[in-house]
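hey m, so remember when u said the tokens were messed up on ur end? i reran from scratch. heres the input so u can diff it against urs
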Amino acid sequence: MLGHLMEWLYSGLGGIKAAADAIAYDKLEIKPEQVGNITHARASYKTPYGNVVSDWSKTENNFELKIEVPVNSKATIYIPASENTKIYEGETLIKNNKEVAFKGIKKGFALLEIGSGNYVFKAVD
């Protein structure tokens, strides 16, 4: 019973999941679930390639997501956003960042594709 709760903490609240076509978590999806009045969550999961970390926090107008993607892995990131939201990776707008591929806004989320490494995304309304 506790195993199911632990899985929800990293896959639901932390949003760490293997992509549908992944082999041993080489392709990830990170889509944190913002539920209730929770304003911060941090989750990690050890894959065969290394640790995946999702650490997010939100305020009324901002959402911040710190990500760690292991070597030889890729990730699709879902950031809560609208057409007017400005999204940064570090201090740079994602449209000016060659390491981040912006794939559009779908159902209230900006879809971003990234490779391995450490990232800090900020969405500002």
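this time it looks ok to me. DSSP finds one helix and eleven strands in the chain. if urs says something different then somethings off w ur setup not the seq
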